[in-house]
2-oxoglutarate dehydrogenase E1 component
Amino acid sequence: MNTMTNEDALKAASATELAGDNATYIESLYEQYLQDPDSVDADWQAYFKEYETGNDALHHAIQDQFLLLARNQTANKGGAAPAGSGSDTNCMDPRQMGVQKLISAYRRRGHRRAKLDPLQLQARAPVEDLTLEYHGLSEADLDTVFPTSDFNIGKPEATLREIIEVAERIYCGHIGLEYMHVTTSTEKRWFENYMETNLGYIKFDKEKKKEILERLTAAEGLEKYLARKYTGVKRFGLEGGESFIPAVHEIIQRAGGYGTKEIVMGMAHRGRLNLLVNILGKNPADLFDEFDGKVMPEKGSGDVKYHNGYSSNVMTPGGEAHLALAFNPSHLEIVSPVLEGSVRARQVRRNDTDGNLVLPLVVHGDAAIAAQGVVQETFQMSQTRAYTTGGTVHIVINNQVGFTTSRQEDARSTEYCTDIAKMVHAPIIHVNGDDPEAVVFAAQMALDYRHEFHKDIVIDLFCYRRNGHNEADEPSATQPLMYAIIKKLPTTRTQYAQRLLAEGVISEGDDKRLDDEYREALDKGEYVANSLVQEPNEELYVDWSPYLGHELEDDWDTSVDIEKLKEYGRRMAAMPEGFKLQRQVQKMVEQRLAMQTGEEPLNWGAAETLAYASLVDEGFLVRITGEDVGRGTFSHRHSEIFNVENGEMYVPLAHLNDTQARFATYNSLLSEEAVLAFEYGYATTVPNALIIWEAQFGDFVNGAQVVIDQFISSGETKWQRVCGLTMLLPHGFEGQGPEHSSARLERFLQLCAEDNMQVITPTTPAQIFHALRRQAVRPIRKPLVVMSPKSLLRHKLATSELEELANGKFETVLPEIDQLDNDKVTRMVMCGGKVYYDLLEQRRELGLDHVAIVRIEQLYPLPEERMVEEVQKYANLEEIVWCQEEPLNQGAWYYLAPHMFRIFGPQGDQPRVTKAHIVEPVARPASAAPATGLPAIHVRQQRELVAGGLGIEVDQLK
């Protein structure tokens, strides 16, 4: 790169490009330079470098210099600079540049000097670039008048002292704004205007201040009431963070004013009971009954009171709005993607493409947001096609301590707990929780930003815990200095009430009346939430009643008229005019058309896509997400087709006809936990839909084990939340090693109870067709876990006829398919998945007509009656073998063994079993890993497995 001297720079400044009528051009050129220095000529790079501020400040920091240069050029046009004058002094006062840099530093770094900690425990390092000396200024310059440029001080020039006073008030008060990491200039200017318009003063009228005090009274009042009534009982109270309640109240009311119809909230324990009572309108009497142990779930296990969700309607300036608080386990941040999924579903239902009608509000703890990986995953989802919800408002209840860990070097590696949000350039508003007006102002700014730009924003509410992690803790044992200060510190409400008394906003009588009225309302068990709608508009709710109260039936008609199936096939094969396919894809489309019109047997992909076509035609939304689901990891789905000439994507299933329901398929980011949680939240919100998450390999599902344990398997029994989510988990031992063989079938079966979910191992295209249709058309919403095949996607024997789709249903048990002499059968092999075809081929090759092979296609709920029917067909049956590919300590055996012994063994109690049978497993040896990674060992184990299943020696195999 060429370099320029100051003299050269001044010559460039005197050139035509810097003439007064070209100042706008120079401004845009500098903006371009800030984005990418190499995008401008080398001479301009060198020139701009002379004014480099060492940070990412916008061009307005030097804009005055350009205009000044332009004016000088215009004034001296045609003549040289005055003789004897120095070029630098002729062009500008260098102190002016220092002032502009100082203003930029306040905008960029003022938050590091803001008064954020109510306890004043923070020992913050001096901020060098907020000093005069750093910018070539001194105290001697304090009374010098400088142009204020675009610093919104209300006048074109001011003394340096006044500029600093205003900058301190705006950027170093009780609000510390981090926004200079935001990448767009428009957003940065928006924040500057928002913060600087009132010169750092927060101007609320008397009524607004009274409203804030009333909500603070409610927040503190509930905690004091519960502390007296239930001393020492865990409630994870909000003491020390009471400003959270007026902040949420402000967000809801302001969002309603923008036309928002639903606000969906998620949060962990701290302050949850307070939110339930004072914001969502839960009756305090109901909460007291829970504390008293008077509330018992009508069914299921129930959950602790600070995990429960709630919903209600409130009145806002824009009309009635629906509030929903998501159920949340103790896994804290896992609720974030669940909530986002629920929000996305609501937005789709309302055709809310910009996210204005449904608002997500997520509440974090400081320790959790900084440490839990699902936070990163959820932030990363925020602007992606499949998962965006138009921006989320995040509130961090920053206790400055996680349970007992308060040392920053132990809790995180970043200065702020909120630094994780910078990964998506989310602005962060740090605010002192003991200044309720600053907190409400921060809430307004956050909501306004989200509405304007539809991106995430974070409020970091600096507060403290007055009573420790929970009410049974003694926090001074681990934080003695912190709690010595807390014990002497007046509550937030007390401080604010004194402030309003001093301002004359309220009287002593007003203060006492607010406190007394709230306590009396609690004593009477009255509702204490503001603006609660007692008779809510039911149109704001989704009616789930058609999907409740049903027995989990397996026998369900899922047939489809064969002519309709053929028509779906033809429509899916019809590409837009001029749409050129890749050669292999073109061949696949042609082959699939032959299958779907009955000319050839169907493979897996052909049957699966027909299931989706039939469902969207019948009005069921279909949504499929996961890594590589558009094509399918194993290249079997091809729901997304691409034009080889321009890369345009076409989704045939989304263009069947004008009246069909929505079909959406999205390749997800490389996440399991957050994505699966998102889809769970989506599926619990939209009943008339088939929501599918597919793992790239089934093994990867263990990255989302929290979602499976805390939501999918137990959400209904804990919270009465029904969910029809479908999980497709590629599973099968094919020599691909320990990480690409097992979807951990045993873990799902261990979690099965109370008809909580369904686990199937389908082996034919017709079975997956009917299983997917059954999941949607049957008015029952239970999670469906599919141990999905890999090699069977194109196996020569794993095919179905179109008539099987048109006339059949999902079969929980598939009987022996060959014509055996039933009287000769002495051995029955029960199995599921790919191993069936290995057994079948060898049985046929060897002519072992005494061995019947029966497929158990549904493992939970276990179809015992159907299993008995198959056994009863063979009068001379002696042995029943369960054959599985997985090691003995994995797979289905440990789940099945007690059932099979009970049904078929000597201790059997099934009345239709005429005699006891030998029941034994055949499996790979028990193993710590799911599978071997060595091909030779895999082949040997597979041969031993098949031989053992058929009851022969390995050397007898073909």
Summary: The chain has 33 helices and 24 strands. Residues 206-229 form the longest helix (24 residues).
